[in-house]
Amino acid sequence: MQNTQIEITDEMLHQLRNVSVPTVTAMLEAKFRNTYLIGIEPKALQPGQIMVGRARTLRFIPKRETILEAQYATSENRPHRQVIEDIQPGDVLVIETGGCLGAAVVGDMFTRRVKERDGQGIVIDGVVRDMSAIRTVGLPLYCKGMHGSGIGRELMAVDYDRPISVAGVPVFKGDVILGDEDGVVVIPPEGVAELIEHGIEHDVQERWIRQKLAEGYPLHRVYPPDAEMEKEYRAWRKAQG
User: Fold this and answer.
1) Closest CA to 37 of 196, 179, 195
2) Span 97-155, pLDDT tens digits
3) Are residues 185 and 202 located together in one domain of the fold?
4) Is the same domain home to 66 and 181?
5) What is the C-alpha separation between 23 and 16, in angstroms, rounded?
6) Which residue among 68, 139, 217, 218 sits deepest, i.e. has the most Cβ atoms within 10 Å of its Cβ?
7) What is the pTM of this model?
8) Beta strand pairing status for 176-180 and 51-62?
9) DSSP letter, residue 189
10) For residues 36 and 29, what is the distance between their CA atoms, to the nearest angstrom?
């Protein structure tokens, strides 16, 4: 099962970079209540960096020793390696671990490979290893924390590109994943066009409001703008082109 009925173009993804995670989360709540990934924080994100892309999903479950042993008989027979080798430009790898904190599912080698395949980021409801090296890769990464041991300590990969649950939020292949310094939000494809139309305008207006607050205007005049300030905003907005 995946979201294929609505095409999300590269241009749409580019425009979403102009909308913040808080704005998207608030706007989506009118139709989609559960989209923000609670507790999944930016652990490798450069200043001002934004992550936008189409979701590719990967699921881990607690390990069963005999099955894990069979998986590791060859390097290729592992879903987590298979999906990484199939990452396409513009993809974000989203990983469900059931919130496991006892085994890292990504290190700097996997992270580098995702970046080399033009992936846009990695989101995990668990932990990673080699964080100091991951931060040198330049790929946005969101997770719950770190652990020194790898996958085999507690987990095994079972499938990819299937619906998953990350921090209690459903994620389907083809969903749009947006991340900035405020966290990560999952955008169903049917919500993207409206976010582009109205979300950008909302964030532009908030930029103007911050300027007015810095000039000493009180909240009740500019947040939201009263009738007089609305006219001033419109004039300012027009001047911005």
Assistant:
1) 179
2) 999 999 999 999 999 999 999 999 999 999 999 999 999 999 999 999 999 999 999 99
3) no
4) yes
5) 11
6) 139
7) 0.91
8) antiparallel
9) G
10) 10
